[in-house]
Amino acid sequence: xVQLQESGPGLVKPSQTLSLTCTVSGGSISSxxxxxxxxxxxxxxxxxxxxxxxxxxxxxYNPSLKSRVTISVDTSKNQFSLKLSSVTAxxxxxxxxxRDPAYYYDSSGCFDYxxxxxxxxxxx
Amino acid sequence: xxxxTQSPGTLSLSPGERATLSCRASQSVxxxxxxxxxxxxxxxxxxxxxGASSRATGIPDRFSGxxxxxxxxxxxxxxxxxxxxxxxxxxxxxxxxxYTFGQGTKLEIK
Lengths: 124, 110
Prior knowledge:
- The complex is a heterodimer.
- Helix content of chain A is 0%, strand content 49%.
- Chain A has no helices and 11 strands.
- Chain A has strands spanning 3-7, 11-12, 18-25, 34-41, 48-54, 59-61, 69-74, 79-84, 93-101, 113-114, 118-122.
- In chain A, the strands form 2 sheets. In chain A, strands 2, 4, 5, 6, 9, 10 and 11 form a 7-stranded mixed β-sheet that branches. A 4-stranded antiparallel β-sheet of chain A has the order 1-3-8-7, with no helix packed on it.
- Chain A is globular and about 40 Å long.
- Chain B has no helices and 10 strands.
- Chain B has strands spanning 4-7, 10-13, 19-29, 34-39, 46-50, 54-55, 63-76, 86-93, 98-101, 105-109.
- In chain B, the strands form 2 sheets. In chain B, strands 2, 4, 5, 6, 8, 9 and 10 form a 7-stranded mixed β-sheet that branches. A 3-stranded antiparallel β-sheet of chain B has the order 1-3-7, with no helix packed on it.
- The radius of gyration of chain B is 13 Å and the shape is globular.
- The interface between A and B is medium-sized, with 20 and 29 residues.
């Protein structure tokens, strides 16, 4: 059974960089064809896709966040990571990591496994 | 960017009733790339339906999805107490290589 677990600081100061890691267990992050995504949800609001990384390391980002986002993968640790720079209070949200079970490079279009989410608050 | 609009915003029904949730896209969406999720308070979303009409593993058959083009529907045939939650539709754009979600429908007990 695949499990995803987010980790990282729960409090980040404005203008700094938010850094989160998603640890994948129950399977290798580099085996098979998967897109690994970050998604966020401000309190009481809807879901926003941030970006994804493919098993091979190629990335795609939400255009609205692209200038501030970097997603990377560490296959030796079975983890992928999110960096979001120049954060403001508007970046306060629960951040989820999730898996898209692709067929080679073709996305399935959905997320079948999610982490439990981690709350990140941007405040001085 | 495709915008998904869900209606109603809140749906008040009783256990045993039928629920019909709508998701309308600002432009045509491939049925292969339309999904529905259920989210309960304090939990991550759970995949219910993918490819517009295929149930995910372990999802009861009272949940069904339908639709094509710009109009999609999630139907819950007979509501169980555990079905009261927020539901999101989501699409994937294979040309823009990005995912978007609807704003959600809250299904509450009447």
